[in-house]
């Protein structure tokens, strides 16, 4: 039987986990339980689609068995199980789950800490085990397979006996060393405590045998005797360790910030606490519980094609879709979380979901909710909001511009830009608050950086007149403002547009005369440039610079540049 090697990156993470002096090893249990729960979800959802499979929701369970003598902890589920190929693919490589991203992003010195907060999945079993054996049988299959590994050296797979579908994870718990105590993971009370702390919300019963004691009942006359001593006997009871109430169904005032934070980090594979938590329950035209999180940093692939938006969707507590994209508009694609609704049918197909009226109502409610949460952050926690803006502002700006401006009203108050007046980010209403009395327009100028814009000849006169100018540094910025067109009756105007409308009638008259006088010169310059410009004019806006470029019509110079640099 050949020993197979783990993929290179898995091997490194394994080494790291096995050898780290690591205080949060206990999270291995949470990881294995969450896999077991996922496996049951999968089978249950699959069975809904297939009709009569004989499966009953009440029969699903997760069992924990402890054998102190043999130092073995076994965790069993009756979920979907893994085929030989699954074992190879899912347990032979770690690159699939979010773990790889974490590995890339972080310096080695941070790693030990990160493991504690961040789901590292199945591999965490090696933190407490000297040998991990996985026996699994796919529902409906007639063969079962055994995967075995002692850690970084590799693993074996061979056929085995297993009567029922599902997976047994058998951990041979490490011996204690001078520094480390592993015995605790063989103690029922410790295991009970860990399940209650980390896995209470799991919606299937997690069962374990617990020793109890009870009073041995005696006839009444005996208990009345003077020398009566109560006697106790011990017995074993198979108890359900978790309350099975998912966190989003709990009452808000029962929950602490840490409950939300650890749920978020566990479920959505982040190692930082979320910036905001939105927990809402609604009844009426749509009945649902939603638990949404605004991450405090952008995932490494956020601004790439790989990023997939969406919320988990549950129908009456059963997971029916992992990333339901229809629940989130693109502008809020960074939001993670879940929705649980009893209005949705359990075996609704993806195609049907897209047209589901309830889902549309929920989506539009959530959209408003997210916006009001962001606004409240902007108003009450400026620093947090600016951090949010640096992570996700670009997406909001794309959102204003995208969908032909369908979301512009939703988003306009959330926008922030640097400006000539303030060395910090400013919203449009804040800019308007500082506008001069006679000022008609909201001025902006575009460029690569704030410093470059500040040095533009086009904005000299505006600055001299004391008008503030918004500094737009992202390609999408001007497209977004053009889509908005105006805010509160005030039009946006590019500092590089030909007609800034800053002159008095008298000045205009004067300029016209000057142009007449210099007509020949202007024509000569235009000809010298050989058709590269459409007109050469005298300008009154320049102060220290002799010449500048400007544009006319809908598109500014910068927008033309962006458009002509786009492929296609
Ligand atoms: P993740 O849960 O983030 O996908 P894990 O490392 O925890 O990563 O698990 C890797 C994969 O192994 C899972 O996605 C799943 O396909 C498979 N797996 C793990 N445990 C089980 C189980 N008890 N039953 C069925 N499949 C499992
Ligand atoms: Mg997992």
UniProtKB/TrEMBL annotation:
Annotated GO MF terms: ATP binding; ATP hydrolysis activity; ATP-dependent protein folding chaperone; unfolded protein binding
Domain of life: Bacteria
Keywords associated with the record: ATP-binding, Chaperone, Cytoplasm, Nucleotide-binding, Stress response
Signal peptide: none
Family annotation (SMART domains): HATPase_c
Residue ranges annotated for the Histidine kinase/HSP90-like ATPase domain, each copy included: 24-177
Binding positions (ATP): 31, 35, 77, 82, 96-98, 117-122, 167, 350
Annotated CDD domains: HATPase_Hsp90-like (cd16927)
Any one of the GO CC terms: cytoplasm
Entry-linked InterPro entries: HATPase_C_sf, HATPase_dom, Heat_shock_protein_90_CS, HSP90_C, Hsp90_fam, Hsp90_N, Ribosomal_Su5_D2-typ_SF
Function: Molecular chaperone. Has ATPase activity.
Self-association state and partner proteins as the record states: Homodimer.
PANTHER family: HEAT SHOCK PROTEIN 90 FAMILY MEMBER
Protein family (similarity comment): Belongs to the heat shock protein 90 family.
Record-given protein name: Chaperone protein HtpG
Organism: Harryflintia acetispora
Species lineage: Bacteria, Bacillati, Bacillota, Clostridia, Eubacteriales
């Amino acid at each position: 039987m050949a020993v197979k090697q783990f993929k290179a990156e898995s091997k490194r993470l394994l080494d790291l986990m096995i050898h780290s002096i690591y205080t949060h090893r206990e999270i291995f249990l949470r990881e294995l339980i969450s896999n077991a729960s996922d496996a049951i979800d999968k089978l249950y959802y699959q069975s809904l689609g297939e009709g009569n499979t004989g499966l009953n929701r009440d029969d699903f369970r997760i069992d924990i068995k402890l054998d102190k003598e043999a130092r073995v902890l076994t965790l069993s589920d009756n979920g979907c199980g893994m085929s030989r190929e699954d074992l190879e693919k899912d347990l032979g490589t770690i690159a699939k789950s979010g773990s790889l991203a974490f590995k890339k992003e972080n310096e080695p010195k941070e790693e030990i800490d990160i493991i504690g907060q961040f789901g590292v999945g199945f591999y965490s079993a090696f933190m407490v085990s000297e040998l991990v054996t996985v026996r699994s049988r796919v529902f409906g299959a007639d063969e079962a397979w055994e995967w075995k590994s002692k850690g970084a050296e590799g693993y074996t797979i061979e056929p085995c006996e297993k009567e029922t579908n599902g997976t047994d994870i058998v951990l041979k718990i490490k011996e204690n060393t001078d520094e480390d105590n592993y015995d605790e993971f063989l103690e029922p009370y410790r295991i009970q405590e860990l399940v209650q702390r980390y896995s209470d919300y799991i919606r299937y019963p997690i069962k374990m045998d617990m020793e109890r004691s009870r009073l041995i009942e005696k006839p009444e006359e005996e208990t009345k005797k003077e020398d009566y001593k109560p006697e106790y006997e011990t017995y074993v009871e198979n108890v359900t360790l978790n309350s099975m109430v998912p966190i989003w169904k709990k009452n808000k005032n029962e929950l602490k910030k840490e409950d939300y934070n650890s749920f978020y980090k566990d479920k959505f594979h982040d190692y930082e606490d979320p910036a905001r938590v939105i927990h809402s329950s609604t009844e009426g035209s749509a009945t649902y519980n939603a638990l949404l999180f605004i991450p405090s940093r952008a995932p490494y692939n956020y601004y790439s094609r790989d990023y997939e938006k969406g919320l988990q969707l549950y129908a009456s507590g059963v997971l029916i879709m992992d990333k339901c994209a229809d629940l989130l508009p693109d502008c809020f694609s960074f939001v993670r979380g879940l929705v649980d609704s009893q209005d949705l049918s359990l075996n609704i197909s993806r195609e049907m979901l897209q047209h589901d009226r309830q889902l549309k109502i929920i989506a539009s409610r959530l959209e408003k909710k997210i916006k009001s949460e962001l606004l409240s952050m902007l108003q009450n926690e400026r620093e947090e909001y600016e951090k949010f803006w640096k992570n996700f502002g670009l997406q909001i700006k794309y959102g204003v511009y995208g969908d032909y401006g369908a979301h512009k009203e939703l988003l306009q108050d959330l926008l922030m830009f640097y400006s000539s007046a303030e060395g910090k980010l400013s919203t449009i209403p804040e800019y308007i608050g500082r506008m001069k009395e006679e000022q008609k327009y909201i001025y902006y100028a575009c460029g690569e950086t704030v410093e470059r814009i500040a040095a533009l000849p086009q904005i000299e006169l505006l600055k001299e007149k004391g008008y503030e100018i918004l500094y737009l540094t992202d390609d999408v910025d001007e497209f977004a403002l053009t889509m908005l067109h105006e805010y509160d009756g005030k039009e946006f105007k590019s500092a590089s547009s030909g007609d800034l409308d800053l002159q008095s009638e008298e000045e205009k008259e004067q300029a016209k005369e000057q142009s007449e006088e210099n007509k020949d010169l202007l024509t000569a310059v235009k000809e010298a440039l050989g058709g590269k410009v459409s007109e050469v004019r005298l300008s009154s806006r320049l102060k220290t610079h002799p010449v500048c470029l400007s544009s006319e019509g809908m598109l500014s110079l910068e927008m033309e540049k962006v458009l002509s640099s786009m492929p296609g």
